[in-house]
Amino acid sequence: MRGFRHWRWHLDEMYVKLNGEMVYLWRAVDHEGEILESYVTKTRDKAAALRFIKKALKHHGNVATITTDGLRSYKAAMNTLGCEQKQEVGRYANNRVENSHLPFRRRERAMLRFRQMKALQKFASVHANVHNHFSHERHLIDRETYKARRSAAMTEWQNLVA
Predict the structure, then answer these.
(1) Is 127 in contact with 104 (CB distance < 8 Å)?
(2) Left (φ > 0), alpha (ψ -120 to 50) or beta: where does 132 sit?
(3) Distances (CA, A) of 100 to 35, 46, 123, 152
(4) Domain named DDE: which ranges (predicted)?
(5) Which of 75, 99, 114, 138 is deepest in the core (most CB within 10 A)?
């Protein structure tokens, strides 16, 4: 994965209520829609953005471009890392990550709420792994291929759980 240099990442943060208090879930999504990294913080500033970007770069290697929204914390963190030329900001450019929040929000509503920051972090990372494992982009492939991939994913999941 580290040698795959034409990756495009989309970064975004979303708020989550934790016992009536707002915390922020930072997420990195690649150009194919896979969730790369999830990170929970109490603040939405340069230090939090810097920790999140460093963590993502450490786990997933270098990246060609990073698309973000207009939050100034991203720009400040990118300047600190020396990769400000990789950042892209556009009005609808970050829709890939905005749409990836939807399955998380649905699951969050079903769970009613989170009570601890550690539980939220654990849920976010596990949810990302499960979502990446079972998401096969049905609209891009035919029915037989989709069914075969879904069956293979389910078999692999059952082997992992057993």
Answers:
(1) yes
(2) alpha
(3) 8, 23, 15, 23
(4) 7-136
(5) 114
The pLDDT tens digits of the residues spanning 58-102 come to 888 888 888 888 889 989 999 999 888 888 887 777 776 777 766
Q: Going edge to edge, which strands form the sheet with 8-18?
A: 35-41, 21-30, 8-18, 65-68, 87-89
Structural contact between residues 9 and 97, judged by C-beta atoms closer than 8 angstroms? no
Return d(Cα 7, Cα 110) in angstroms, integer: 33
Q: Which domains are seen in the chain, by residue range?
A: 8-161 (3.30.420.10)
Instruction: Supply 7's token pair.
Output: 């990756």
Residues in the chain: 162
Q: List, as one string, the DSSP characters of 10-43.
A: EEEEEEEEETTEEEEEEEEEETTS-EEEEEEES-
Q: What is the pTM of this model?
A: 0.71
Q: Which two tokens stand for residue 6?
A: 């034409």
Q: What tens digit of pLDDT does each residue of 49-62 get?
A: 999 999 888 888 88
For residue 19 the two structure tokens come to 């016992």
